[in-house]
Amino acid sequence: MNEQEQWQELGQQLRVDSVRAAAAAGSGHPTSSMSAADLIAVLLARYLRYDFDRPQDARNDRLIFSKGHASPLLYSLYKAAGAISDEELLSFRKLGSRLEGHPTPAIPWVDVATGSLGQGLPYAVGMALAGKRLDRLPFRTWVLCGDSELAEGSVWEALEHAAFYELDNLITIVDVNRLGQRGETMHGWDLGSYVDRARAFGCHALEVDGHDVAAIDRAYAEALELKGRPVVIVARTIKGKGVAEVEDKNGFHGKPLDDATHAVAELGGERKLTVSVAKPNTEPARHAFPSGPLALPRYQPGEHVATRKAYGEALAALGLARGDVVALDGEVSNSTYAEIFREALPERYFEMYIAEQQLVAAAVGMQTLGWRPFASTFAAFFSRAYDFVRMASISRADICLVGSHCGVSIGEDGPSQMGLEDIAMLRSVHDSTVLYPSCANQTAKLIAAIVDRPGITYLRTTRAATPVIYEADEQFEIGGSRVLRSSETDDVALVAAGVTLHEALAAAEELAADGIACRVIDLYSVKPIDEQTLREAAAETRAIVTVEDHHAEGGLGEAVLQAFAGSESPPIVVTLAVRVMPTSGTPDQLLAEAGIDRTRVAQTVRTLVAERSTAAGARES
Amino acid sequence: MNEQEQWQELGQQLRVDSVRAAAAAGSGHPTSSMSAADLIAVLLARYLRYDFDRPQDARNDRLIFSKGHASPLLYSLYKAAGAISDEELLSFRKLGSRLEGHPTPAIPWVDVATGSLGQGLPYAVGMALAGKRLDRLPFRTWVLCGDSELAEGSVWEALEHAAFYELDNLITIVDVNRLGQRGETMHGWDLGSYVDRARAFGCHALEVDGHDVAAIDRAYAEALELKGRPVVIVARTIKGKGVAEVEDKNGFHGKPLDDATHAVAELGGERKLTVSVAKPNTEPARHAFPSGPLALPRYQPGEHVATRKAYGEALAALGLARGDVVALDGEVSNSTYAEIFREALPERYFEMYIAEQQLVAAAVGMQTLGWRPFASTFAAFFSRAYDFVRMASISRADICLVGSHCGVSIGEDGPSQMGLEDIAMLRSVHDSTVLYPSCANQTAKLIAAIVDRPGITYLRTTRAATPVIYEADEQFEIGGSRVLRSSETDDVALVAAGVTLHEALAAAEELAADGIACRVIDLYSVKPIDEQTLREAAAETRAIVTVEDHHAEGGLGEAVLQAFAGSESPPIVVTLAVRVMPTSGTPDQLLAEAGIDRTRVAQTVRTLVAERSTAAGARES
Questions:
Q1: Quick one: which of A169, A183, A285, A302 has the fewest CB in 10 Å?
Q2: CB of A114 within 8 A of CB of A45?
Q3: In this complex, is the C-beta atom of A297 within 8 Å of any C-beta atom belonging to chain B?
Q4: Cross-strand pairs, B142
Q5: Active-site residue among A100, A207, A356, A558?
Q6: CB neighbours (10 Å) of residue A265?
Q7: pLDDT tens digits, residue range B295-308?
Q8: What's the predicted TM-score (pTM) here?
Q9: So what's the ipTM on this one?
């Protein structure tokens, strides 16, 4: 057999194994795997540089199946590379198997989870960007996309950024099999429509017959030679290729073939080819940026400093201390104050423009190579990237997201700019961390604390300058809280964070003058939450009042309620939150309109104390 | 003055008024308004067809400021059109003024809120699609975009769909002023880069000098003549045009001019031009689709039917009954069962391909014209469009979103396809409705109930076929619940919905055999929630156990906890929810792994009853 015949045979093996894996599982996407089998066969046999024994080696090429449902093909590739056994291949989609329905990093050779379409390419942009600008290694990033997923805007955000950053180390292979889940795509086999788009977005694009291994070989060779631009290879393929019953037919997406035995026979039977995948050149060393001592900014208690400003200053300090810290922002760095990092460390700052999906995806991509990304935009605009955040948690990604301009307290800009769902959104992500500091010193300390935090970490900052309330040397643990006022005779505990903590403190001051004692708890760590301190407050006061600049659902108040779930004697908890549609106005006006200002907090406490006194009086009488 | 001079004067007036409005507010975006003033002047004076006295008239053109921060320009346009007074103009951004920082439908001539960039154009696609296919009226949809926002993938989803649906009634004006919030855009004044992209996406695109009123006039005339394709007019403009201090300079985004008086003088002073805006031709009548009696599908109790299937069948029935109902889906209509509607009513079905942002945006656009859209995809994938959902609530949009494949119960496909944050995401939207039926008859009734529901309504459907538990004639109110089992001596109340309701019922059955009585509450309306029934359960049982196929944060459990916020004696509430990272497996395996199956429910109740007995015993002894 000559080389091309070997590639064809390998393609058939990948098809056979895809069919077998789906048959064993009783579900899965064999036909979407069969269309791309020849593209992957040539890649594996001749172009991929990967050491399956050392997946952590940054010098490896990256391979991402953006069309994650073609997992049978990916797993068949692993088998062909000798990385998994045939037995493991057939554990596909079974409980306990790492070979899940869509790839996840439970598999050591998978960097990012895919399965939500249009995400693999944006992640790859982050990896390729790291390869060019951070690691400075010659690895290539290969992405297999489906044609259906090119309808996702995130794909065009990715190609736009790839071209802008001249990512010639990024090669996108589009498997144009014409058929989506429920029928034909918008463009069918009009390969030119994709090529034109990719070129207009600044990529080098070429068409290829995705079942002609010689043509595929030439396309890959051309891709490797090109400098200065990302390459998009648009391949005409046939869904279900090789099995007449399903070839190019609608209605066979996402299901095993009816007669797998017959299909395997039609494909020429099982094969036992093993590819000795070329390993990367291990000579180049990763670039490292200098590290140094950490000198966080220090603020004077009483001084007024916006926590967003403290974020920028702390991040710059952290970046000087740690060469692995990088920052990304979505064209609002002068509002989030990520610009302070950019000015200090321009090599490690990445402008992602107004493309929040790509912003988060680039962070996810970079962390696969060990970088510690901080991505910032307005809190509200992380909602644009929520699917990426959700998937990042499935990717076991370690990223820090920092959202500014939270809540009605931003004032005149109005509701479109107000983060009012961000805590709910981030809390509900698996194993996430949600922090909401109220003071510049606290913000700086928390920024330093989260750099090594696993999972998705979200920190919410405030637009307005607020008083510094903690000393610069105070330490803040993730999962902790601070009791700012307390006495043995506290009537009510006020639980707040961020801007409303200052309202709670003012209310407590006002109430103290009337003889009502309030405990004030700074719940800066919304998730994980300090259950112990809350329990003590519940035991030692008559009621808890939570107050937050966020909608009532899924926020700080419900986090407190959840902390008492299962409790034998849950306390009275009153949840003050934004329950109106905000408008424009001054911050103070809007806090009042939303019922989360000091006046409303004080009123609420007075009512509670009066009711409880009456109730107690009634019981005594 | 000839016509062109009048346009120039009008442009200057719009600039002057933008400067004055921002000066009066002390904030806002005058420079972003000044760049587009000439484009808007010519549009208003010659091309727009709009009756400001009859904003509800479907025959009006639509005008959307996708760059919502150019609100001073929009409000200055209203003044020039005689729709608002100068006094009102100067109320910009003040509490109580409808002229908010970014436009919202508090203003009668604003159809959709903007301010999150890259959204105006996708909404416009929905309006233009309605104009072509539903209303069948000759109105035009004009969109003013900024250049920065073209980095958002949603813009390309929109142009892709606009071209695919041949929306020649959609004219996009791109104000290329080169400068974003914090610096230059990716492409600066390279107008060709935008033109190439728009053409590759199937649009007719042209370049124009955005300060040459004659050229603008010619471009608009060309746009109106073109058939079969959307038009994109890429205009070279100067940010802050007309005031030397800020013209084409960085650092003046989003702030009033330092010396407004001087700037107004430099612009030639205040003017008092009023434009008599041409009204639309009121001859054409809106197309109406036939209506008829409502014949919802009926299912036999005991039969196994997936609620997603019932959704499709009920929606088709609703569509036959009501000519204003339309359906949209994101290329998964064979999974969501929206395909049943498509087959019955193809004229009112819109395939939005794998572009969830455009899916939701099209629904929002269509409802501005009075259509009642139902948009469906997997529950998980609405996270892709969360920013659009959030903004839709600010738009006061009335839309129904239906998410299938919720929770771990989908089984083998794995976590990327599981909606586990969707309740949190939708609950936290202002004034939203969140429903989660467990039975096909219930689903059908709820679909009929939500068609006239104001605001954002979300209904969650289940992949698996589950038993029909209600009679076809039973009625279900939004905000209601159903007590499926109860007695005077209930030990514990189980609160569930959807797939876990069936687990709760099975657990109750099992426990009854052991002499433990469970009340079972079907909490199909998660928001609004039936507080009364929950309060009765709290009063009449020892504890409440919630069980949901969703993450613990922001879901059904926290909705129940929130229902007791402020309560004088809150009950014991145990919240069973998904607290693990799911994998692939069978539905039953995954429900068990997540601790939300019948076995875990029964165990939880047994432990609760035992603890309470012990506690009671301890107190008695």
A1: A302
A2: no
A3: no
A4: B63, B171
A5: A356
A6: 13
A7: 999 999 999 999 99
A8: 0.98
A9: 0.98
